[in-house]
Amino acid sequence: MTDVDADLVIIGGGPAGLTAGLYGARARLRTLLLEGHLPGGQVLITDWVENYPGYPDGITGVDLVRGMTEQAQRFGMAMETLKVDAVVQDGSLKIVSGEGREIRTHAVIIATGASPRKLGVPGEDQFFGKGISSCATCDGPFYKDRVVAAVGGGDTAVQESVFLTRFAGKVYLIHRRDRLRAEKILQERALANEKIEVLWDTVVTGVSGLTHVENIHIRNLKTGEARTLRADAFFVWIGIRPNADFIGDTVRRDDWGFILTDHLMATSVPGIFAAGDVRATPLRQIATAVGDGALAAWAAEHYIEQLVK
Ligand SMILES: Cc1cc2nc3c(=O)[nH]c(=O)nc-3n(C[C@H](O)[C@H](O)[C@H](O)COP(=O)(O)OP(=O)(O)OC[C@H]3O[C@@H](n4cnc5c(N)ncnc54)[C@H](O)[C@@H]3O)c2cc1C
């Protein structure tokens, strides 16, 4: 059999990749995880996780992913900091490359997750990092007793708006519809919170300020009324896009770019699997990412066994 640098390469060190690493290492595959930044993925910017089973009182995102990383490494998963920019086939091998490095492997699990979507309104790029953020854990504490605005209506927007009230004096939650999409328990908390004012049927048309966010320009979709909110920060939580540009059209993807898989996480290319938020799935959570990662590693193990027979 052709020599490889690792039996299994996992791209991305969020909960999906770390779980795949744990299962790959325990299957005694030479398992290498490549992470472009720090292991942990989106969980690193999640202040408090209260719906991951096994932690009845909740756990910080940092502690949860630290445990996942240590557990996978304890069983032998190797980890390197490397931003992958291509995966190509070479016969039955896969070549994973990035930053001038090439790694030959039998199987690849893509677990590169997703990133926040942008609104695409004037001022958004200009003020990113100058009052515009998608990370309440990172930036919320800067706005003690200040007025902040947020946009979105899903789990992240609602949960993180409640989190922002620990610091901010007032949080405007701007939502384009007349009801929220978030889990009911999260909605109840937000709607009962006196610091949160939901602006229903409203869209953001722009952000302005001098050197930092000062104004959020909004329009009511029902009345057509345009107005300007004074706010010191603006948090954008309107969904996510997959971190899958590097794979191009090597594997089949849906209309939004999420990778299509079967129930065993196999993509359209034998030996390439996908797990977690990067794949087309109806629920994107830590628990589902972990389940995907375990299945993907199991499927990769069986794929590799077939190769070496
Ligand atoms: C603010 C916030 C709060 C949330 N709260 C909860 C919650 O309370 N409960 C819950 O269950 N879920 C929550 N989620 C969702 C949850 O975090 C995600 O569903 C989960 O992290 C997905 O895991 P993943 O491993 O698929 O991807 P990610 O966590 O996105 O990890 C992907 C990793 O891949 C890396 N990567 C990307 N591209 C490359 C590349 N080219 N090369 C190398 N590495 C790369 C990234 O750096 C990242 O570390 C929250 C998300 C956010 C943003």
UniProtKB/TrEMBL annotation:
Enzyme superclass (EC): oxidoreductase
Gene Ontology annotations of biological process type: removal of superoxide radicals
Gene Ontology molecular-function annotations: thioredoxin-disulfide reductase (NADPH) activity
Cofactors required: FAD
Pfam family membership, one: Pyr_redox_2
Catalysed reactions, semicolon-separated: [thioredoxin]-dithiol + NADP(+) = [thioredoxin]-disulfide + NADPH + H(+)
InterPro entries noted in UniProt: FAD/NAD-bd_sf (IPR036188), FAD/NAD-binding_dom (IPR023753), Ferredoxin-NADP_redctase_2 (IPR050097), Thioredox_Rdtase (IPR005982)
Gene3D superfamilies tied to this protein: FAD/NAD(P)-binding domain (3.50.50.60)
Tree of life domain: Bacteria
GO cellular component: cytoplasm
Annotated family: Belongs to the class-II pyridine nucleotide-disulfide oxidoreductase family.
PANTHER family, per database record: THIOREDOXIN REDUCTASE 1-RELATED-RELATED
Oligomer status and interactors: Homodimer.
Name used for this protein in its record: Thioredoxin reductase
Organism expressing this protein natively: Desulfococcus multivorans DSM 2059
